[in-house]
Amino acid sequence: MASVFGDDTAKREGRVTLNPLKHLDIAGTLLIFIAGFGWAKPVPVNAAYFATRRVQSIIVSLVGPLSNFVLAFIGFTIYYFSPMNMTMDEFWNVFVMLNVVLGVFNLLPLPPLDGYRIVSSLFPVKIQEKLRPLEAYGSIVFLIVVLTPIGDSTIMPFIGSSIDVVMSLFYSIYE
């Protein structure tokens, strides 16, 4: 989406590829094996190329989680209408839940997630500038919240409730 709005940063940096090695983050990859949770390199975006920086930044940030919800809905549709098959049912169930969780998770307003980019884009420029130096600490706070029991009483109830809402919405469409 950033490319559509005039930002070719990802292309110039060789990140528009299906080669998974170009997207690996060393720390994020190691944590997958250590903690069962990790991440890839974020896609580089330079909003200076956008004609309407605030609106287009929000749209770019929404596209990732929205694509997860679209994929989840497509998977749910296949799951809902396909004949019963234990192996495929399990595959589609995991596919749907993974995409719903990723979509909800990425909407959390914590740096470096898309939800933070959306919320921070709504602030006046002066506040955005004051928040920018704090973003480096956001990743540390984010990891503490996610990898410790703090997350059990903060973000996990939100994620669980959000998953229930999305899945109820999917079921209500077909019932």
From TrEMBL:
GO biological process, one term: proteolysis
A Pfam family this chain is assigned to: Peptidase_M50
Keywords of this entry: Cell membrane, Hydrolase, Membrane, Metal-binding, Metalloprotease, Protease, Transmembrane, Transmembrane helix, Zinc
GO MF terms held by the record: metal ion binding; metallopeptidase activity
Subcellular location: Cell membrane
Transmembrane portions of the chain: 26-51, 58-82, 94-113, 134-150
Cofactor(s) named in the record: Zn(2+)
Predominant location: membrane
UniProt keyword annotation of Hydrolase present: yes
Span of domain Peptidase M50: 85-143
Membrane topology: Multi-pass membrane protein
GO cellular component: plasma membrane
Keyword Chloroplast: no
InterPro entries for the chain: Metallopeptidase_M50B, Peptidase_M50, Rip2-like
UniProt family annotation: Belongs to the peptidase M50B family.
PANTHER family, per database record: ZINC METALLOPROTEASE MJ0611-RELATED (PTHR35864), ZINC METALLOPROTEASE YWHC-RELATED (PTHR35864:SF1)
Protein name: Site-2 protease family protein
Organism from which the protein derives: Paenisporosarcina quisquiliarum
